[in-house]
Design a protein that fits this description.
The complex is a heterodimer.
Chain A lengths: L4 H8 L1 E2 L16 E12 L9 E9 L2 E6 L8 E4 L3 E4 L6 H5 L3 E6 L4 E7 L5 H14 L1 H9 L25 H54 L6 H17 L4 H7 L1 H14 L1 H6 L3 E3 H12 L6 H9 L8 E5 L5 E5 L4 H12 L2 H6 L3 H8 L3 H13 L3 E6 L2 E6 L18 H13 L1
Antiparallel strand pairs in A: 1-5, 2-3, 2-8, 3-4, 4-5, 6-7, 7-8, 9-11, 10-11, 12-13
Helix pairs in contact in A: 7-8, 8-11, 14-15
Chain B lengths: L2 E2 L2 E2 L16 H22 L3 E3 L8 E2 L4 E2 L2 H13 L3 E3 L6 E4 L4 H14 L6 E3 H6 L13 H13 L3 E4 L8 E4 L2
Antiparallel strand pairs in B: 1-2, 3-7, 4-5, 6-7, 8-10, 9-10
Helix pairs in contact in B: 1-2, 3-5
Keywords (chain A): Coiled coil, Cytoplasm, Endosome, Protein transport, Transport
Family (chain A): Belongs to the VPS36 family.
Main location (chain A): cytoplasm
């Protein structure tokens, strides 16, 4: 028994793999928990059951106790699997212990050898003990066994070097380990999300069919009682009701909702819309086309979309309610929503400003010019221009280039004296503006 | 401002909307009025008695602003003049328009004045002489449209101021004044 290491290596202790820099090679899922320096491992028994390991670093992991000599020559790095630990003795406080170095004893199989850990240096021994208990009771190796049951024992860790495991992946060590773990978590989350969305996409692609199918079924259910006069028994009725309920719960808005709600549906929609339009109306300058509002409203509603006809009906109902907005139909057929307080006066004065500028006096304006100046949609701008024309503010010029509007000079021209141009007035300014061009 | 011969065009001739028939009633009425005056003014200056709607009439297009009147606009403006009794459609299709910057009655008065000025109260003249004779040279009657002249003469005949009689050839009717 000259060399106790034979017992250690073959029995209690295993050789611990270390990296070239002397760090223990951590196995898969093994996490370092504690490190203490200047530690001896002694045999309690007399005679000693193994050669004492003197002066090394003790590393506690979730799976093992690893002892690594400070000087690589003196002894081989050894480890005790926590799986083999049968008992950890409680720390005895005595007068004797006051003078001794702190020590912790534990018993381990095979052979129920009692090992004493002697701390010769400084460190948080109590913390170590606590952690030791935790790791021992945590039994992390049991998880490991389940996973690695298929992995051949021979491959475990013999060729591992540095931070890389046998499979070439980075080990879970230190900061890199944490980062890697984060990364893996993120990837798995991502994957599960993707899977989830794939399901959703599949559902979406089927949704249309689902809706039409459900509609068809509903129609059948509705028509059935009338066609099969009185022949329906209770069971059938029950199942039909169930079916109806089920389809409603799926979230298919069927015409039943509208039919049953009747005018109420549009009334409620109408009120909701009246509340909603305020902000888009403000942004649009007091008037917004029905098309634009349809977009705004449905966008706000998300999935509960309404049809253009519903919107129109809801707007039409405003006349009956005391709401500050109204539906207005232009002569051209364009329909807009506008504030009741909204007056054309302001728009007209802005158009007047636009067309009496020297440049526009001469060239006139198109609907898109006006749209830019008034910051409204071209279709709306055209309506305003047409209104201004009706009021006699503008006159039109139809040419191959399109429709342009000019400030209406006709009222200012004296029919009894065709060549007379007043010094003041827009006609005079127009003459100046056009003569500038010809010079 | 561009000119057509001696005729000075008004400033608004370069106003593009002037060449588009205005859809708004008030504006359109004013536009029609201005066209009416301009056409009559021009015809009087240039002694134009006949305007063909589909023919090139100098006023109906403006190359400066690259605008011209549509057929509808031309007919509308001429019809307005007709409505005032200052022009007449010569056909049902409204393709030719007789411009009367003087009404027939006014032309008749001018003829009477011409007769008195030249001491022709009891004379005999041919119709052609009235239009192109030395007496009418420099007067408004020079080059008068034959249709207009005949209608003015007929008006005077009805009033007993003259008698029309057939000459030897078809284009040579005689007039016997008896003012």
């Amino acid at each position: 028994m000259a060399s106790g290491s034979s017992i250690g290596v073959g029995g209690l202790f295993e050789n611990a793999e270390v990296t070239t820099s002397g760090r223990p090679v951590i196995r898969r899922n093994e996490v370092e928990c504690f490190l203490l320096s200047s530690v001896d491992l002694d045999s309690e028994d007399d005679p000693p059951r193994f050669t004492a390991l003197r002066s090394g670093n003790l590393i506690l992991t979730t799976h093992r106790l690893i002892w690594i000599p400070s000087q690589s020559n003196t002894a081989v790095p050894s480890s005790v699997p926590l799986a083999g630990v049968t008992h950890i003795f409680t720390h005895k406080k005595s007068i004797k212990s006051m003078f001794h170095s702190p020590r912790i004893r534990f018993q381990a199989d095979p052979g129920s050898i009692v090992v004493t850990i002697v701390f010769r240096g400084k460190g948080d021994f109590d913390g170590f003990l606590t952690k030791f208990w935790e790791c021992w009771r945590g039994r992390a190796w049991e998880e490991e066994e389940k996973v690695e049951s298929e992995v051949s024992r021979s491959g475990s860790g013999t060729v591992a070097q540095g931070l890389y495991g046998n499979d070439g992946t980075v080990r879970m060590v230190g900061l890199a380990g944490i980062l890697r773990k984060e990364q893996e978590q993120w990837e798995s989350t991502d994957k599960s999300l993707q899977d989830a969305f794939q399901d959703l996409n599949a559902l979406m692609s089927k949704a249309k069919e689902m809706v039409s199918l459900a509609e068809k079924m509903r129609q059948k259910l509705l028509s059935a009682p009338s066609s099969q006069n009185g022949s329906t028994d209770d069971e059938e009725m029950g199942s039909k009701e169930e079916m109806q309920q089920w389809m409603l719960s799926v979230g298919i808005i069927s015409p039943v909702t509208k039919e049953s709600a009747g005018a109420l549906y549009h009334q409620e929609l109408s009120r909701q819309l009246a509340d909603f339009v305020r902000i888009p109306l403000e942004q649009a300058g007091g008037m917004i086309s029905l098309t634009d509002m349809y977009y705004h409203f449905n966008r706000a509603r998300g999935t509960e979309l309404i049809s253009p006809d519903d919107l129109w009906q809801a707007c039409s109902l405003w006349e009956k309610f005391d709401v500050p907005v109204m539906l207005r139909k232009f002569d051209s057929g364009v329909m807009v929503i506008q504030n009741k307080s909204h007056s054309d006066e302001e728009v007209m004065s802005r158009i007047r400003m636009l067309v009496t500028k020297t440049e526009t006096l001469r060239t006139g304006v198109t609907a898109s010019d006006a749209a830019l100046t008034l910051k409204i949609a071209p279709a709306m701008a055209k309506e305003h221009l047409l209104t201004a024309e009706t009021k006699g503010l503008l006159s039109r010029d139809m040419s191959p280039d399109g429709l342009r509007f000019y400030f209406n000079l006709f009222p200012e021209i004296d029919p009894t004296n065709l060549h007379f141009v007043k010094d003041f007035g827009t006609y005079g300014e127009w003459v100046k503006a056009t003569s500038l061009l010809s010079v | 401002m561009q000119k057509f011969g001696d005729f000075k065009l008004p400033q608004f001739f370069n106003y593009p909307p002037y060449f588009t028939l205005q859809p708004v009633r008030d504006t359109r009425e004013k536009q029609i009025q201005l066209w009416k005056e301009l056409i009559l003014d021009y015809c009087k200056t240039h002694k134009v008695f006949l305007i063909g709607v589909e023919e090139d009439f100098p006023l109906f297009s403006n190359s400066t602003i690259d605008r011209s009147l549509s057929h509808e606009a031309r007919e509308t403006f001429l019809s307005a003049i007709v409505g005032e009794g200052r022009a007449e459609w010569l056909d049902k299709g409204h393709r030719k328009c007789l411009i009367l910057w003087h009404r027939i009655q006014d032309w008749a008065d001018i003829i009477l004045q011409f007769v008195r000025d030249n001491g022709l109260e009891d004379s005999v003249m041919t119709v052609e002489e009235i239009r192109s004779g030395t007496e009418s040279h420099g007067t408004e009657l020079q080059g008068i449209d034959r249709t207009i002249l005949m209608r003015a003469l007929k008006l005077l005949e009805n009033k007993g101021k003259l008698a029309l009689f057939k000459g030897t050839s078809a284009d040579d009717e005689g007039v016997k004044f008896s003012v």
